[in-house]
């Protein structure tokens, strides 16, 4: 396990969360979404952090500090400052066509605007559905809209920058039936946002386009995207088949083609992918795969599997990983990143630039 107390604390929080009775004291919440997200946004020692609200957690917030309740009822101050993030002002506005801004895009951390531009996915029905994904859950509860238009996103982005000091934006999408996997709608959205807020860095996220349509990646670059995430979640085919049966039909060779083309266009450390700890992949193989990604210029964004209501894995009772395992893997991957001179904080926009869902930033990655 890592001996870094900051990394250990963030790993513990990422897995165990904080007690549910603190829900009202964490104003910025995201109850569901397209990937391994959590639903409370705070700053831990100044670093963006997302944490589950968990009634069984021994952790609580007290006077801006993280405390732990022991089995005997004693409370220990862990020496970690925790600041909450205020509800942003742009949430109170409505688009020109009558949609609340909060249904178009959400604040992540204290300065990242994020949205799923198409909230449906061709892989969401069983047996193709990713077991950790709840992309359509927020749509079914009415928390968002199925498709965000370029005009809506440009309007919300401008307000979020002006009113709340947003510094970067992340655009992800459910997968479409098209060969571009939804990339060209992302490109239209990027163009509109850049026209409204030229200086706002943007990361786009999608599945690898079909090999016959790799030009869709160039379209994203030409539209003005600053970074791209192509998320594989695991490099172990057995894990992929169990956890992401639909996505597993896309061979890893296709991911490598898309990553290499993305690095060629966007440059090293501007391309990233999620690697999820807790899906059953051998830790040594996960770290080795991360090192291979780093060698190709791709940033491996290491996050824990989180049991999110509305997902198949949650319904099956799949547990989150052991915090010590998460801290160990994160520390090892961070060491590889540091040796290569790759830091999430050096990226213009995206999940790694935000860092909230991972403990890598606490370990120098």
TrEMBL record:
Residues 105-346 form the Radical SAM core domain. CDD domains: Radical_SAM. The keyword Metal-binding applies. Keywords: 4Fe-4S, Iron, Iron-sulfur, Metal-binding, S-adenosyl-L-methionine. InterPro entries: Aldolase_TIM, Elp3/MiaA/NifB-like_rSAM, F420, rSAM, rSAM_MSMEG0568, rSAM_sf. Its cofactor is [4Fe-4S] cluster. Gene3D superfamilies: Aldolase class I. It comes from the Bacteria. GO terms for molecular function: 4 iron, 4 sulfur cluster binding; 7,8-didemethyl-8-hydroxy-5-deazariboflavin synthase activity; metal ion binding. Transmembrane segments: none annotated. NCBIfam families: rSAM_MSMEG_0568 (TIGR04043), variant_rSAM (NF045502). This is Radical SAM protein (TIGR04043 family). The lineage of its organism: Bacteria, Bacillati, Actinomycetota, Actinomycetes, Pseudonocardiales.
């Amino acid at each position: 396990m890592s001996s870094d107390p900051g990394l250990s604390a963030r790993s513990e929080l990422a897995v165990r969360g904080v007690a549910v009775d603190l829900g009202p004291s964490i104003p910025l919440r995201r109850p569901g979404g397209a990937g391994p997200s959590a639903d409370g946004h705070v700053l831990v020692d100044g670093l963006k952090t997302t944490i589950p609200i968990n009634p069984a957690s021994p952790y609580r917030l007290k006077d801006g500090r993280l405390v732990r309740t022991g089995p005997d009822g004693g409370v220990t101050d862990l020496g970690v400052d925790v600041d909450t993030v205020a509800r942003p002002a742009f949430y109170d506005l409505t688009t020109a066509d009558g949609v609340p801004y909060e249904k178009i895009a959400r604040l992540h951390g204290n300065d990242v605007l994020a949205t799923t531009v198409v909230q449906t996915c061709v892989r969401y029905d069983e047996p193709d559905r990713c077991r950790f994904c709840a992309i359509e859950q927020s749509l079914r509860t009415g928390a968002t809209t199925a498709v965000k238009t370029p005009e809506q996103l440009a309007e919300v982005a401008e307000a979020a920058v002006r009113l709340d000091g947003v510094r970067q934006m992340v655009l992800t999408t459910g997968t479409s039936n098209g060969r571009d996997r939804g990339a060209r709608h992302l490109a239209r959205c990027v163009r509109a946002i850049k026209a409204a807020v030229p200086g706002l860095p943007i990361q786009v996220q999608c599945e690898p386009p079909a090999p016959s349509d790799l030009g869709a990646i160039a379209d994203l670059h030409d539209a003005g995207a600053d970074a791209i995430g192509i998320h594989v979640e695991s490099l172990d085919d057995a894990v992929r088949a169990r956890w992401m049966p639909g996505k597993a039909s896309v061979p890893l060779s296709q991911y490598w083609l898309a990553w290499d083309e993305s690095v060629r266009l966007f440059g090293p450390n501007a391309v990233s992918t999620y690697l999820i700890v807790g899906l059953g992949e051998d830790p040594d193989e996960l770290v080795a795969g991360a090192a291979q990604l780093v060698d190709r210029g791709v940033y491996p964004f290491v996050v824990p599997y989180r049991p999110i209501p509305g997902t198949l894995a949650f319904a099956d009772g799949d547990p989150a990983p052991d915090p010590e395992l998460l801290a160990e893997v994160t520390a090892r991957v961070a060491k590889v990143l540091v040796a290569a001179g790759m830091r999430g904080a050096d990226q213009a926009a995206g999940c790694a630039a935000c860092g909230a869902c991972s403990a890598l930033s606490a370990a120098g990655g």
